[in-house]
Amino acid sequence: GQQVMQIPQYQHVQEGEDFTTYCNSSTTLSNIQWYKQRPGGHPVFLIQLVKSGEVKKQKRLTFQFGEAKKNSSLHITATQTTDVGTYFCAGPTGGYNKLIFGAGTRLAVHP
Amino acid sequence: NAGVTQTPKFRVLKTGQSMTLLCAQDMNHEYMYWYRQDPGMGLRLIHYSVGEGTTAKGEVPDGYNVSRLKKQNFLLGLESAAPSQTSVYFCASSYSTRWGANYEQYFGPGTRLTVT
Q1: How far is B96 from chain A (nearest CA, A)?
Q2: Given CB 3.0 to 4.6 Å as the disulfide criterion, which of A60, B74, B110, B115 pairs with B32?
Q3: Residue B37 CB partners (closer than 8 Å, separation 6+)
Q4: Vertex B108, ends B107 and B110: CA angle to 5°?
Q5: A97–B97 C-beta distance less than 8 A
Q6: Whole-angstrom Cα distance, residue B21 to residue B89?
Q7: Do A96 and B106 touch (CB under 8 A)?
Q8: Chain A interface includes B74 (CB < 8 A)
Q9: SS3 content of chain A, % helix, strand, coil (to 5)
Q10: How far apart are CA B6 and CA B92, in angstroms?
């Protein structure tokens, strides 16, 4: 069946270092969404990418959608302690706005 | 606007007991979803609803039932709880899709359930 895989599962960085998480889908996606979940919190939508090769920026966060629309990445420049949490990618599956989520990448930032 | 709310926040059940988790949204969303989150496994869809009076199975529906009697509420029931159902449960809602577009899902704060 359809799968969405994320790597790494966990990463810890020193504050100020960069961070990247990668998302790979077993199928071509019409779009991809990214969510952030703070420790003890709930997932919160960050962004949606739709076009092949699309790059979007939100302050220190850069999101990319691959040319083949099967992979995506999230890059954080100069991490801060506020970036701590788990980042999930999600792709549509089976209509009705259903999503299939990756397992997430947990980011720890040491001050 | 409260967004998506869930009750209760925490619950401990004994094996075989039953309970109902309540989700409510005030955004007039057509679509609602129930997920479970387990360590290292991301979010998995249990059941979903595309409108009042409708429900459908997701990826991991066994052991759960749902009802959507009112548009704003989506209930998740466990008839006979098992330790394997220990998890964090999230409800989410979204606008209905048009012409293949997808929309963000809004999540509730979650219910942490432990079954002993």
Answers
A1: 7
A2: B74
A3: B43, B44, B87, B88, B89, B90, B110
A4: 115
A5: yes
A6: 9
A7: no
A8: no
A9: 5, 55, 40
A10: 10
Picking from A110, A67, A33, A30, the residue whose alpha carbon sits closest to that of residue B42 is A33
* Tokens 């704060």, residue located: B109
Structure tokens at A107: 């980011």
B61 in contact with chain A, both atoms CB, cutoff 8 A: no
Contacts of B45 in chain A (CB under 8 A): 98-100
Q: Which residue of B has its CA nearest to A102?
A: B42
A58-79 residue pLDDT tens: 999 999 999 999 999 999 999 9
Phi first, then psi: give them for residue B84, nearest 5 degrees.
-65, -10
Q: What is the pLDDT of residue B41?
A: 82
Q: What is the pLDDT of residues B62-101, one digit of tens each?
A: 999 999 999 999 999 999 999 999 999 999 999 987 766 7
What's B84's DSSP letter?
Answer: G
Task: Verify whether the Cβ–Cβ distance A101 to B31 is below 8 Å.
Answer: no
Inter-residue contact B21 to B85 (CB < 8 Å): no
Note whether A90 and A72 are within 8 A (CB).
no
φ, ψ at A99 (rounded to 5°): -125, 145
Burial code (b: 16+ CB inside 10 Å, e: under 16) for B34-50 equals: bbbbeeeebbbbbbbbb
